[in-house]
Amino acid sequence: MAQRLPLYATAARGTEDLLAAELTALGIGKVRQDRGGVRFFANPIEALRACLWTRIAMRVLYPLSEATVHGAEGLYEAAADVPWEEHLTAESTFAVDATLKDSEHRHSGFVALKVKDAIADRLRAKLGARPDVDSRHPAVRVVAHLAGEALSLSLDLCGEPLYRRGYRAVPTVAPLKETLAAAVLAAAGYVGEEPLFDPMCGSGTLLIEGAFIATRRAPGMSRHFGVEGWPHLGAQAKEILADLKADARKLKRPAPFPITGLDRDEDAVAAARKNIETAGLAPSISLEPGDALTAPPPPAPGLLVTNPPYGDRMKAGGQKGMKAFYFKLGEHLATYAGWRMAVVSGNTAFESAFHARPLSRRKLWNGPIECELLGYPARPG
Ligand SMILES: C[S@@+](CC[C@H](N)C(=O)[O-])C[C@H]1O[C@@H](n2cnc3c(N)ncnc32)[C@H](O)[C@@H]1O
Fold it and tell me: What is the pLDDT of residue 313?
């Protein structure tokens, strides 16, 4: 591997600047923000430190080629031009994940298949044998992204996407992605040195990500990374990661301030408890069932961060009901002196119904849903 690799970390739209700032804080020198991610250069230690510590990136990719392609033939030829023999052996396994945007092809599976065929044929020609495909646990995961006619082919350093932190024990309705929750906390300026409160915590994602920050835990601490299985680099990556994890273990501390949550749905509270336990954060977070419209504030000052229900736009009377809910929420939270607030809302009716003046706003995407993160200053009291 060259000493400094060009890498590309992907992030939810609207959070790229937060990821660029995070990578810079992790000691990465040259970062360049792009739409949907951040380009940077890193040596193997820096790259693996970024994989282990990033809270905001969804994937870290090593781009191998970019080409303009037409039709199925074009896909095959562009993929066959890449020197895969530098990254794979006949004995290693591989898989191809494809994503499409505004492409002439309708099925990502078709694009993945063409790229896979090209890789297999090239390796058979170069090495006399081809590696097997293992779509679940490949040694090398290839990522193909086709935007219009621009095909980019990369290797994925992480394997499983980074938002799969491994603590989501129970499925719940409309959870925030872990990486987006971490981006929201970063945008709100949360560094773990003040109380944190989510009065509509659902599965607990914001609280868990907050507790990771407060306890200085590396989010990748208990996972493996795809690069550990790469035939030419795996052994070196394992050694580097073992050292980085040992250093990370020394930084852990108990949460210095209370992290608390409520939800009026007892099933959500039970799911959040299970997730918190799975994440090993039971001593850092306290939860109870409760109503955000009447709950008294925890002792101030602190950061209230929350992601209220968006409501069902299709349901008769749904929007009217949501406006009334946001209005009551605004009335009640106006009594929370000393709490600054960060609210992720996916309902355009929220801001006016909440009737407080935000100090900051940012658009971000919760998957396909366009949301707004509104920041409110603490009220004196
Ligand atoms: C969009 S979900 C929050 C998802 C959460 N951020 C997560 O990652 O899982 C909204 C949550 O608000 C809760 N909720 C709705 N009305 C509430 C109220 N009056 N008091 C407390 N919780 C409420 C719902 O039960 C639901 O869990």
Answer: 58
Q: Clarify whether residues 77 and 137 are in a common domain.
A: yes
Neighbouring C-beta atoms of residue 362, cutoff 10 Å: 18
Is the same domain home to 137 and 34? yes
Predicted confidence (pLDDT) per residue in 164-222, tens digit: 999 999 888 889 999 999 999 999 999 999 999 999 999 999 999 999 999 999 999 99
Give residue-wise pLDDT tens across range 217-234: 999 999 999 999 999 999
Rounded CA gap, 333 and 139, in Å? 50
Range of the domain at 200: 178-216+253-376
Q: Is the pLDDT of residue 127 over 80?
A: yes
Domain-embedded: residue 371:
yes
Closest Cα to atom 5 of ligand 1: 202
Q: What is the pTM of this model?
A: 0.95
Mutate to test the pocket of ligand 1, among 264, 294, 369 (most ligand atoms within 8 A of CB): 264
Q: How many domains is the chain partitioned into structurally?
A: 2
Does residue 318 surpass a pLDDT of 90? no
Please report, for the domain that includes residue 52, its CATH number: 3.30.2130.30
Asked whether residue 63 falls in the same domain as residue 212, the answer is no
In testing the pocket of ligand 1, which one of 167, 170, 198, 200 has its CB within 8 Å of the most ligand atoms? 200
Indicate whether 195 and 47 sit together in one domain: no
Buried b / exposed e along 133-159 (16+ C-beta atoms within 10 A)? eeeeebbbbbbbbbeeeebbbbbbbbb
